[in-house]
Structures are given as C-alpha cells and as structure tokens.
UniProtKB/TrEMBL annotation:
Keyword Transferase applies: yes
Organism this protein belongs to: Demequina lignilytica
Name the record gives this protein: Aminotransferase
EC number: 2.6.1.-
Family: Belongs to the class-I pyridoxal-phosphate-dependent aminotransferase family.
Enzyme class, broadest EC rank: transferase
Coiled coil: none
InterPro entries: Aminotransferase_I/II_large, NHTrfase_class1_PyrdxlP-BS, PyrdxlP-dep_Trfase, PyrdxlP-dep_Trfase_major
Obligatory cofactor(s): pyridoxal 5'-phosphate
GO MF terms, alphabetically ordered: pyridoxal phosphate binding; transaminase activity
Gene3D superfamilies: Type I PLP-dependent aspartate aminotransferase-like (Major domain)
Keywords for the protein's UniProt record, in alphabetical order: Aminotransferase, Transferase
Record keyword Oxidoreductase present: no
Domain Aminotransferase class I/classII large: 45-375
Length: 387
C-alpha cells in the first residue's frame, strides 16, 4: 500500500513531535519525574469547569444528545465576549464553534485555500502548523521572527510571499516565546498585506491564532489583527484558559470589519464546510456549557508568580530567557547551544523540558509553567547543575 503524498508529508513533519510524546510518556511514568513539556494540568480541574459541565449532563429534552452544529447560545456568548474584549461589533453569525483551536485552524484552511496554496507561518512557532498544512495539500512557508525581540519581521514576511500565498499566520500571545504584539506592528503588517495583495492579484488573509489571548501578565494590553485588517479570521481555544486541553472547545470568528458581501459568504460556508471535513463541531455538552465557562479561568496571579520564580532563578543561574508577556511558557537559550542535549541531560535528572528543535530552533528550549510551584522548586537544582 502506498500512502497519499500529503499523508506522508504530514507524517514526516510531525514525526519529531510524536517521538517526543513517546519519550515523555515513558519518562513521566517514572515516579518523581517533573514534567515541564506540554501545557497540561498538574492539579485538579478548576471548580468552575467541573460545575459548568456537570450542570449540563442531565438531559433537558429528548434531543439533548442529538447531532448539533454551532449552538446559538454559545455563538451569542462568544460574540458578546469578543465585542467586549476587542472593542469590535461581532455578531453571533460571525462565530463558528469548533473542536478547539485545532478545529478552528483546520476550518480556516479549508475555507480560504486550495491545494497547492502557501501559508506563511512564524518561526519559532507552534509545531503543528506545518503538518496540518501538509495534510491539507498546502505548503508552509516559514518567516523568521525578529531574533531577540520576537517581533514581526516584515521583511521576512515580504520575502515569504509569492503569488501562491493565501494566509499569513499571526500568533499573539506567542507560543513558544510569550510575546504579545503591539498595535503598531499589526498596523504595519496590514499595510504590507494590502500592498502585497494588490501586487499578486489575490487577497492575502491573516489567521490570528489567539488561544492564549486571555493569558497575559501585568496588564499587558492586547490588540487583535481583526481590529486593523478586515481580512482576518480569529481562532481560539478554551482549553488554555481552563487548563483542560482534553475538552475540545473553541471557535473561529470573522473580523466584523470585513466587507458585508465577503462576510456573508464565509458565514454561509461555515456549517457546510465543517460537516464536510468530518463534523467539526464541539460536543453538545461543551457547547451547552459555554455561557457558564466564559468567565472561568486559571489563576493568572499564581501563574505570574510561577513565571517570576522560574525566570528569576534561571536568570540568576546564568540562563538567557525571554520574560513572557503572555502564555504559560518560558523560552530560553540552551547551554552550549544544544537544546536536544540539554533536554536529555535534564531528563537524566528527572526533569522534562521541550527541546527547541521542535520549533525549528535547536539551540533553545521551552518550559511549561502549568507545573506546580513545588515542582518548580524541586527542579531548580537540576537546572543550576547544568547551567
């Protein structure tokens, strides 16, 4: 049997991530291992999450567990929340409820691209962009972020654009760096994409990947590209703020600034495309819970204290790290410039981190701060030993 080329290409792109999954699974099973790899919960679920789901388990009609597309109460809740957060007038019809941000990103790709199109992705950036694109017969085109600040590099984006470009992905707050992009950079990107769209004769869209939008520190402001560039789609996941990535709930939303004709065209395509790509809607119970979940979230003050403790201790030990403005990650330079070797050495000491090679930056490493404060304290001696 011969697999499809796009399946083989996606398999190749994701191979290193799957290998890490397997290694982490084996090592995490060892008692006493301290896991700082993925943004998984390390403590009991948030009370508000459990209460919201529990309150929807008892059926209230014969069709409570029937097939369901995007539920109107969920869309109304999301539209109201987006309007309040971003200062834009979202309508419920602008929102498609999805299986987390994965589902929203997949929906955006299927709405806007044809096989062979190109999508510009940030580097360092989320390691699942390339395999998702390959599986959709699309081509990921990397655009480096600014070396030290991780700001947008407009020259790099301009070089990445070709006549096949359809989407530029913007991730803020950014995984893995924690950078929150300011308005002036987004406005400059909007001007660039307007000019490049005119040059190549087709509209280039922004996919604003915002699953960490509500996880920001010290009052850092947030501006979505949707506020400055009408041709923007927003993807979001509740799994980050709820620390419940296994409960798949998210959405895709249109910028309300999009001209009405194009806006209506995409809105009308939501349900048919979500059905066609494999019933891309969240489970009924998760949609019923959305109104209760909108105001539930992890303790940002506690998360900020973990950031400050880990960042301060590692900086004192001699590490060079970003001080994230958002997300729950620390991004640092690996000792001797070898993130894989550093991660392996830490693993030998019972501490697991993510090597930067997964983000196409092999000289770096990433720490997830969803681990507990006692775990952070217990891991610091290993970090100091290897500094």
């Amino acid at each position: 049997m011969e697999l499809a080329r796009r399946a083989l290409s996606a398999q190749h792109e994701i191979a290193s991530v799957l290998s890490l999954f397997e290694q982490i699974g084996r090592r995490a099973a060892v008692p006493g291992t301290l896991d700082f790899t993925f943004g998984n919960p390390h403590e009991p679920p948030l009370d508000g999450l459990v209460d919201a789901i529990r309150s929807q388990v008892e059926p209230r009609s014969d069709t409570w567990f029937a097939y369901t597309t995007s539920q109107q109460p969920a869309r109304e809740t999301v539209a109201a929340g987006l309007s309040a957060e971003l200062g834009l007038e979202f309508e419920p019809g602008d929102v498609a409820m999805t299986q987390g941000a994965f589902g929203a990103i997949s929906l955006a790709f299927h709405l806007l691209t044809d096989p062979g199109d190109e999508v510009v992705v940030p580097v360092p950036g989320w390691f699942c962009y390339p395999p998702m694109l390959r599986a959709s017969a699309l081509t990921p085109v990397p655009a480096d972020l600014a070396h030290d600040t991780f700001d947008l590099d407009l020259d790099a984006i301009a070089r990445a654009i070709t006549p096949r470009t359809r989407i530029v992905v913007v991730n803020s707050p950014a995984n893995p760096t924690g950078r929150v992009l300011p308005r002036d950079q987004l406005e400059a990107l909007a001007l660039l994409l307007d000019a490049e769209s005119a040059r190549i004769g087709r509209r280039i869209w922004i996919l604003s990947d915002e699953p960490y939008r509500r996880i920001r520190f010290s009052g850092v402001p947030f501006v979505s590209p949707a506020a400055v560039y009408p041709w923007t789609l927003i993807d979001y996941s509740y799994g980050k703020i709820l620390l419940a990535p296994g409960q798949r709930l998210g959405y895709l939303a249109l910028s309300p600034l999009l001209p009405r004709g194009e806006r209506d065209q995409i809105r009308e395509a939501y349900d048919p495309v979500q059905l066609a790509i494999g019933w891309g809607f969240p489970d009924a119970l998760m949609q019923y819970a959305v109104p209760a979940l909108e105001d539930v979230g992890l303790d940002l003050a506690e998360l900020e204290s973990k950031r400050d403790r880990m960042h301060g201790a590692l900086a004192e030990a001699g590490y060079t790290l970003t001080r994230p403005e958002g997300t729950f990650y620390l991004w640092g330079d690996a000792p001797r410039g070898d993130g894989d070797a550093f991660a392996a050495s830490l693993a030998e000491r019972g501490v697991l981190v993510m090597p930067g090679s997964l983000f196409d930056r092999p000289a770096h490493f990433r720490i997830s701060l969803t681990a507990t404060m006692p775990s952070i304290e217990a891991a610091l001696p290993a970090f100091r030993e290897l500094a």
